[in-house]
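User:
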Amino acid sequence: MNEAEFKFSREGIEGIAPVGASLASVMRRFGIRLPSDCDVDLDEHYCSVTVSDGGSLLSPISTAEKEHFNRHKRRAGERLACQAIVAKPGGITIMTAEKEKKVKEPVVEDKIFNEFAELPLEEKIAKLAKMEAVALSETISFVLDSPFKVFEKFGDMLADIGMKKDTAQKAGPSVGDKPVEPSEPDKDQTKAKKPRRAARRTASPRAGKKPDTP
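Assistant: Predicted structure:
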């Protein structure tokens, strides 16, 4: 059997991993994420774990671990997960490093509310009355101004429509519009009616004048 049984105490995860795997790869296999990747050359490690049981089943401390722990004090059973290798099968219990908790920023309370809460009851009532009066005044002003604003918008809309019509008339017929041709008059209407001549009246003999006799 070339497998080791792992138990991660903080996460409450248990599983099996093959011999020859590093602790870092075993942690990734079980979904345990490290804060960041390590840089051995710069001696930057973020994979410190504590092997509480089965430490003898891991490989001896590497040179990189010795250099790191010479600079940083080593705790009992502490190993670097990127350097420790599973050397023998058996049971291994690991306690991962506690994750740093994000400090929540204090909630900034409303200054006005705090000041109002500290006032005596009489002053609170007085301030509430003033606030109500201001709100009522602004509401009345809004209601009175609303009709004028509506009529003003309506007037602007009518003026805009009139301006567009005036511009269209000055521009003349648009391209593609056929000019309206005058309709041909009826032939019957072209024939002018001849005026009737007035009948000649014969001169009547003057009264009292006798006609010439031959």
